[in-house]
Every structure is written in C-alpha cells, then in structure tokens.
Amino acid sequence: MTRENLRINGQRLIDRLKALGEVGALPGGGVCRLALTDDDRAGRDLVTGWMRNLGLSVTTDAIGNVFGLRAGTEDGPPVMTGSHIDTVRTGGLYDGNLGVLAGLEVVETLNDLGITTRRPLCVAFFTNEEGARFAPDMMGSLVYVGGMPLDEALAVEGIDGTTVGDCLNAIDAAGPASVGAPEVHAFVELHIEQGPVLEEQGVTIGAVGMVQGISWTEFTITGTSNHAGTTPMRLRHDAGYVAMATATFARDLATRMGGHQVSTVGSFELKPNLVNVVANHARFTVDLRNTDEALLQQAEAEVMAVVTSLAAAEGVEVTHRSLARFAPVAFHPGMVAKVEATAKGLGHSVMRMPSGAGHDAQMLARVCPTAMVFVPSVHGISHNIHEHTAPADLEAGANVLLRVLVDLAE
Ligand code: HGY
Ligand code: MN
Ligand code: MN
C-alpha cells in the first residue's frame, strides 16, 4: 500500500468498537457509559491504553479532555480528529466512539506503513459530549475552546445531584494540561448520522455543512397537591396538567412548523407521583432544534408563552432554566468541499447535509477550520441500543477520514 492508495483496516476498527462496547455493556445489548461514571473511567483507561500502544503521547486537560499526539516531521499545531466516548443511558457502539476509534485506526495505518505526516496529528476525546448527566452537551469541547469557563463547568450539578468537579475527581479524570492546548490546525470528526437521511437517499457519505441550533430548557411547575377524588376541577392547581399540556404543545408545535423543527420532552417527573394525588410539582425538559436560528427563537417564544398562560390560568408557579443553547454552526466551506471531493475520489456516493445532532466539531469550529464526515445509521436509529452502521460504511467513513487527515497534514 502506498500513500496514494492508503486504506484503513476495517476489521481492526470494528474489533476496537466491540471491545470498547464491552465497557458499560447493557444486558440486552447496547452501552451505558454516562459521563464521569466508573464505566466512563474504564472506557477512558481502555482508549488511552490504545493511544499509548500506538505511540501517541497522551495529555489530559483540567476538564478531562484527552489528546493523543503523533509527531509530524515538523512541529506546530496538529491536525486533529476525535469525538467522545461517553454515551447516553441507552447508547450504542458507534455514537462518538466511531470518531475516536477511527482516529486511532488512521494512526495505526500510518504506523504500519511508516508514514510520518508533515504536521502532527492528534486524536482526541472530549469530556461529557452527551450532556445527558451534566448539561450542557459538548461540555468538554465547549470549555476547550473557551466557550464556558472551567470553574463554571466544574460547578455544574447533574441529574443525580453530584457536580462535574466532584465526579471528575472521583474517577481521577482531570489532568494537568491547561484548557485550550494544544492549538489546532484543523479538525475533522467522523460520526454516524444518527438519522434516516443517508439511508433513505442510498448515500454512503455525508459531507456535513452545518450543525443545527440546540435549545434545552428545564421547566419547574409548582402547584398544590390535593385529593384526586374530592377536589373539584375548578379548585385545582395541578402542576402535572400544566406540564403535560406544555409538553403536548411543544410536540404539536414542531409538527405545525415543519421543516427542520424538532421538539422533544425527554425528561419528565411529577411529585408526589401517586395515583390519587393532584401533582404539586412537575419538572420536565424541552429540547428544541432547528437549522434556522430565527425559527428556533420563534419556537422557544411560543413554548414560553404557552407555559406562562397555562400556569396563570391554573394558578401554579412556573420557573425555568436554560440547560443548553447553541446557535446553528456552519462548517468551513473549503473543508466541507474537501470531505465531499475525497469521498468522490474514493468512489463513494456523497451528499451535503446538516447535522441534527450536536457534536464536538461544532465547538472546534470556533477555533479552527472544521468539518464532519457522516456515515449512515441503519433505520436512522441512535440513542438506542439497536444503533447500527454497516461494516462497509464504517470502513468507507474511516477511509475518507484517513485521506482528509493526511491531505490536511501534508
Ligand atoms: O444532544 C445531542 O445532540 C448530542 O447527542 N449530544
Ligand atoms: Mn455523538
Ligand atoms: Mn449522542
């Protein structure tokens, strides 16, 4: 194999994906490796062990972002690739993990051939990309690019009442490197699409042009608990009703707006949560996304107006806090074109598309030319233990990543 026909070893990549998938494996399949848990620590140990075995010099920063650096013939900012290895509770083998392990596969392929690129290469994984335990998502990469002060991130309290700082310490994941080093020449992230578009279009590679805007809000409704049987409807201050009516509105709003608008109420709790008690407390989250910032703001405003008017009519209190808010991010046109041309050059079908999911790449785009490579998700499923991408597609994506990284590093 020469530089011209460089190819990764697909089976080696799949073997690593499976090995990492054993860490936090769920009994019925799938993976649960929530950020900063013992399972996350075990995953970190496995991946950093692979990094060292591949000759990478590994550094960890104060929020636990990990960087595996491969020297080039010249010094200077590296060409970086990577993603995340934390998962949601019902995670799969590929979300995030593919981007990190494909980066390692690129390194091993170059090692096998004794190829040293001009610029250094770096394979990274960022802390708490999912944001499922500690909001916001993409926390590690957001801190890395200076979008969130380290202390603010460390103080974030998660869904189980612990803080990022305490949990980082508990799994010994913080490192000595100052946040925001090393500088980056360019960043490319390989990721599964996590949606149905590539599969429906019969296309192998997505050249991702942008990431849609993300708005996460937590609402807390406070009403009056009362007897389910004796309390006339006219006297109720039912927190659960206002929460449910708002959640239903948010869902119907996305249907009414159409286009890229999506809306999800994924976390919902009532108290005292008993069959015969009118709820006096409701806490729920609303995840709104759109490729268009103005439409996203419109959706936010409509939800806020409805919950406010429902609360006034029901005589309950409503408070809210933003858990995450990121405007849409466009990737570097030249980099997107490079992904597209590289995919074509390798004989793969390719299409330009937005990302419906958030990614670390949207943060790196603040500090360097950035792009993403998508591969299809079977039935468009993700954040689901049945998440799957065909081996040939994994290999195609990793080969596109290999070529793009080598081109950028020369
Ligand atoms: O929520 C997201 O888009 C990502 O999975 N963190
Ligand atoms: Mn991801
Ligand atoms: Mn995810």
Q: In this structure, how is the largest beta sheet organized?
A: 9 strands, mixed
Give the helix proportion (percent range): 25-40%
Report the C-alpha radius of gyration, rounded: 22 Å
H and E string: HHEEEHEHHHEHEEEHEEEEHEEHEHEH
* Total count of helical runs of at least 4 residues: 12
Heterogens: (2S)-amino(hydroxy)ethanoic acid, manganese (II) ion
Oligomer: single chain
Structure characterization notes:
It is built from twelve helices and 16 strands. By secondary structure, it is α+β, with helices and mostly antiparallel strands. The strands form three sheets. Strands 1, 2, 3, 4, 5, 6, 14, 15 and 16 form a nine-stranded mixed sheet that branches. Strands 7, 9, 10, 12 and 13 form a five-stranded antiparallel sheet that branches. A hairpin with a 5-residue loop joins strand 1 and strand 2. Helix 1 packs across helix 12 and helix 10 crosses helix 12. The longest helix has 22 residues. The protein is elongated. The site of (2S)-amino(hydroxy)ethanoic acid (HGY) has 6 residues, from loops.
